[in-house]
Amino acid sequence: NSFCTLLVERAEPSPRRKPLPLSAARVCVQYIDCSDPSSLLHTVTTKNMATSTTVEDELKEKRADYKRRMERVREREENLKRDRQALQERLVQFYKYIQDNEIKRLRATKKANAEEAAKKERFETIGRLAKQMEALEHEKHAARERYLKYSKYERYLNDVLHDNDGEEYLEARDIISRYRTLDENRNVLKKRKTQLERLLAESKVQLSVQQQRSKNEQVDLQNQVNELQNTLEALQRTYKRKQDQLELSITHKSSTTKTIGQVRMACQNLYDCCQRMNRDNNVRVAREDAQDDMLAQLQFIGDCLGDYQFVIQEWRRRGRAAAGGAPAATTAPALGTTVKDDAAGTRR
After folding, report:
1. Which of 50, 209, 287, 309 lies at a C-alpha separation of 20 to 30 Å from 341?
2. Biased-composition ranges for Low complexity (predicted)?
3. How far apart are CA 313 and CA 308, in angstroms?
């Protein structure tokens, strides 16, 4: 019964699988009566035949399906081959396109780099030329300033040559030679100053090293430096005070010398006037040493002024006597004559 039930279940179509195609063996199996035991062998045989037929049919179908699938597989392989070949061709074209683009990119990059380098070089050239132009402008202004300064100096030299009374400098090159000599001396002094500054710097370095080696020596040297500095300041103050005193003394002596010179000139002028008056009147003769001796000149001038004053007083007295009715003298005493005054009794 279970076998018949199995056959019946197999004969019934399953909803989850596709039913097999209906054959003659299947039709026979559907109408087998399972209640008859004698027909069991026949049923099994029929079943085996039906099964083999079914299997053969399935195999045929599977072969046909396999052939169809293989054909489709072949077609797909051919299509795949064609597609692969086309893809390879496209890949080759793509590679060629990439290579062309890479070559173009390299060319463009090289061109861009060259343009960038040229642009940078142009900018650098422009900057360098701008700096050169600025430097040339500075040189131009400096040359113009030097030209103006030298032109002023040339005018000054010409004025010096024009106003040169002592004929110390006959030509401009004499002044230039003198200037060059002074400039060379100044350069020598500058070199000497530089050498002394270098020696001073070396001495300071040695002093610093020595100060780092010993603190005691550093303190002692610092104290010595302070003492020397104080001494230097004291000497500078003393020097300044002495210099001020010297300048004051020089100023005073200059003023005194100027005053003495003015007095000597005035005395000489008065002496010359008195000499001229005496020569005109042929009265008094000056001393031989009065030409260089200022005291003798002053004495001579005093005598002359006394005589002149006496003459004035005498003329005034006679004028008053004439106005009072007294007889007037016909002549006046000459300069240098000996006159006895009744009141003073002095020789003029």
Report:
1. 287
2. 322-338
3. 9
Other CB atoms closer than 10 Å to residue 168's CB: what's the count? 10
Whole-number Å distance between alpha carbons of 53 and 55: 5
Q: Which residue has the tokens 């390879």?
A: 88
Dihedral class, residue 32 (left if φ above 0, else alpha if ψ from -120 to 50, else beta): beta
Token digits for 284?
Answer: 């008094």
Work out the percent of the chain whose per-residue pLDDT is above 70: 74
C-alpha 95 chain-centroid distance:
59
Torsion angle of C-alpha atoms 318, 321, 325, 331, degrees rounded to 10: -20
How far is 295 from 302, CA to CA, in rounded Å?
Answer: 10
Confidence band (pLDDT; 50, 70, 90) for 170? low
First to last CA, the chain: 208
DSSP 13: P
Q: CB neighbours of 306 closer than 8 A, spacing ≥ 6? A: 348
CA–CA separation, 113 and 121 (whole Å): 12
* Torsion angle defined by CA atoms of residues 188, 189, 195 and 196, in that order, rounded to the nearest 10 degrees: 160
339 close to 333: Cβ distance less than 8 angstroms: yes
CA distance 32 to 39: 8
Tell me: pLDDT of 144 over 70.
yes
Location of structure tokens 């001393």: 287
**Does the model's pTM come out above 0.85?**
no
- pLDDT, average across residues 326-348: 39
171 DSSP 8-state letter: S
Cα 120 to Cα 112: distance, rounded to the nearest angstrom: 12
Q: Give the integer Cα–Cα distance in Å for 309 and 164.
A: 50
Average pLDDT of 225-254?
A: 88
Length of the chain (residues): 348
- Which H helix or E strand runs over 293? none
